[in-house]
Amino acid sequence: MTMTIAPRSKCSWLFTPSRLPPLRLAALLVLIAAPFHVSSHQDPVAPATPPKANPLAVFAPLIGPVWVGDLPEFKLTDTQRYEWVYGDKFVRNTHQVHTADGKLVYEGETIYAWDARAERITWLYWNTTGGYVAGTVTVRDDGVLVVEGDNHGPKEQLDQVKAELRIGTDEWSMRPGKAKDGKWSFEEPRPYRRKG
Questions:
Q1: Would you state the pLDDT for residue 144?
Q2: What is the 8-class DSSP label of residue 63?
Q3: pTM of this structure
Q4: Contact 194, 170 (CB under 8 A)
């Protein structure tokens, strides 16, 4: 019986047992069987290394609940939700801004990731205005998250953003800042509370 996979190919001799020299046939069988080899020999137990802490765990207190913050100057509410994605390798944050009567006026999404090469938290944000912001998160000694980024959206939008997040048990706050043409302005801290 011939097992030629590609007729007339240069390597069809590999799959024609009747034409293989015994040594080549033995070598071929060893190569085929090697991945399935089961050894009765037991390797010594390697010392356990503790798993590395997930740098994105700084977001853990935010994950799960729906959070609502008021934007009283605009008579709007900002609803945010954080969740682990892809086996806790990333954190997704979605947010929607509604009017007092519940009409959706704006929404966006952020993905936070650990940049292992630069050893820092990075993030990408995009929204319904076409804005696309990329930046980094720094964790200060006091636990405050400093989120900074550059906008890659339309030129009439903000150039840069910066925010400080202070995370509590049932509440967190964000002090947003923005820059346009090199001029920075910061808002008062905005509290977010668990919905429900």
A1: 97
A2: B
A3: 0.73
A4: yes
